[in-house]
Specification:
The protein is α/β, with parallel strands linked by helices. It has helices at 41-48, 71-77, 94-104, 109-122, 138-150, 168-180, 192-198, 216-220, 223-228; strands spanning 2-10, 16-25, 30-34, 56-61, 64-65, 78-81, 156-160, 184-188, 201-206, 209-215. α3 crosses α4 (109-122) and α3 packs parallel to α5 (138-150). The protein is globular and about 50 Å long.
């Protein structure tokens, strides 16, 4: 589905954020990307939906190269759930935020109304449809931001620190939602228990490189490997 080949990226100040990364994300799989702060995770995420285009190397989705002329199709195929939901919600009422994407695709009004209402009901947001997003709780904002992604029916969903602002109940709801999606999922998170619950495969980043990848339970159970990359075991495994 997504192929990354020798991807490199250097910021204007000379910081080498990505150093010859090669990865494959196959259709229908769920992959977690973990690493300490500064490992390059956010820079990689910003490449996956075309916010950054390859400076070195190449990215493709379904055989379509990431380049400026293909940006519209890439952003339809790859939905990004931002770390801060306030970056994703900007309209006067929630309904309009969720309708914004379909409107920009040129869908007709009846199609937009149907898909927006279905998404609101699916995520239990119907009673909030006329509220300003600024009046929602953090948990409600998180699921509202998710709705703006799901309404576009992307082939791939990328989640950047999706549990950073959630209480335990909403965190469990997000785990259930993520696992119910029959889509390719890529999750960047420091919450290794969330990665344990939602991902089949894990990649560890360090210094802008992929230093380990494999089955999630195998990677996340290796205290020595995690410690070598400034990470700790998931909470459920600590003290065992």
């Amino acid at each position: 589905m997504i192929t990354i080949d020798q991807l490199g990226f250097t910021y204007p100040d000379g910081t080498r954020a990505l150093d010859r990364i090669s990865l494959r994300f196959h259709e229908g799989t769920s992959t977690g990307i973990i690493g300490a702060n500064g490992a390059g995770k956010s820079t990689l995420v910003n490449h996956l939906n075309g916010y950054y285009l390859p400076m070195e190397g190449n990215i493709s989705i379904g055989g379509v190269d990431y380049c400026r002329k293909n940006l519209d199709s890439i952003r339809r195929d790859v939905g990004l759930l931002f770390q801060n939901p306030d970056d994703q919600l900007f309209m006067a009422r929630l309904y309009d935020d969720i309708a914004f994407g379909p409107e920009n695709l040129g869908m007709n009004k009846d199609e937009i109304r149907t898909i927006v209402e279905e998404t609101l009901l699916e995520l239990n947001l119907w009673n909030l449809r006329d509220k300003p997003p600024s009046h929602l709780s953090q948990g409600q904002k998180r699921f509202a931001a998710f709705a703006t992604v799901l309404v576009m029916d992307p082939k791939v969903i990328v989640m950047d620190e999706p549990t950073s602002d959630l209480d335990p109940q909403n965190r469990r709801k997000l785990i259930d939602l993520a696992n119910s999606l029959e889509k390719t999922r890529i999750t960047v998170s420091h919450d290794l228990d969330f990665i344990w619950d939602t991902c089949e495969r894990v990649c560890i980043m360090n210094g802008g490189r992929i230093v380990a990848e494999g089955p999630a339970r195998e990677i996340l159970s290796s205290g020595e490997l995690l410690e070598a990359n400034s990470l700790e075991l998931p909470l459920r495994l600590q003290g065992m």
